[in-house]
# Entry
Amino acid sequence: MHRIFLDMNSIPTHTSRLMDKREFRWLNGFDFGYNPSKSFLKNMNNALRKEYTEITGNDFDVLFMNIVDPDDLIYLPAELTATLKARIEVQKPTYWGNCLIGWRSKNQDRLIKPEDDVTEDEIEFKWLELSLPVFPEESQKKPDVAKRLGLSLTYTLVVESGIESQDLEFYVQLKDSTIVERLAERFGFLQEQWNQQADQDISRTKGYLHQFYFDREEDGEYVFRIDMGSAGVEGLKLALNEFNDPAWRIQRVEIFNS
# Structure
């Protein structure tokens, strides 16, 4: 999972959703490896997030859980429990810790597997072991991506890697939702203008921007998509410059690899 958070007004904005799909992205590896039921995944996510904060005193900052070997999920029929050994990417890219997660039936009447449908009253999850990485001193910060792209943005960078991905989704919070249609029209114009310039570029160094459009509304946010095509990072820079225009009164942008 790769995320970049852009705060357009330097004012922290917090969102809370019980069933936000993005909330489950740290469990994508588990979802892919064991094909759990939706109810199992939901209860796993909720319980482990809550206990993580209780144990560490920090907000939940696990970016990804990596299943090294599918056989690291072990069932203990005699105890009616299951344990899973995994690695977790924490807070910053390339910083990994180790963990052992366990679950069991609260009534201790059956062995629960990931594909089983369960309610919160039927299952409990625990961090049996939680070994977090040691981060270097804050002075060893990564280079400023906004400056590297020639932009003036106030933002908090959560994950730097992956910004060159061709397909991105922008989750946009607006002060005035009535401007969505105009903003979408603006993006269509920018894409057309960009590609016309690419057509006229004799040197063939200016790539083509494949798509740039408004896709949907989701939980009060407006999702725009861009396929940067051969335009690459310059296409991303075009999008960020437009989002940074104060005329649109954008409060916050979250960028995801789609």
The domain at 162-257 is CATH 3.30.70 (Alpha-Beta Plaits). Residues 1-5, 7-20, 138-147, 149-165 have pLDDT under 50 and may be disordered. The two ends are 10 Å apart (CA to CA). The longest helix spans residues 180-200.
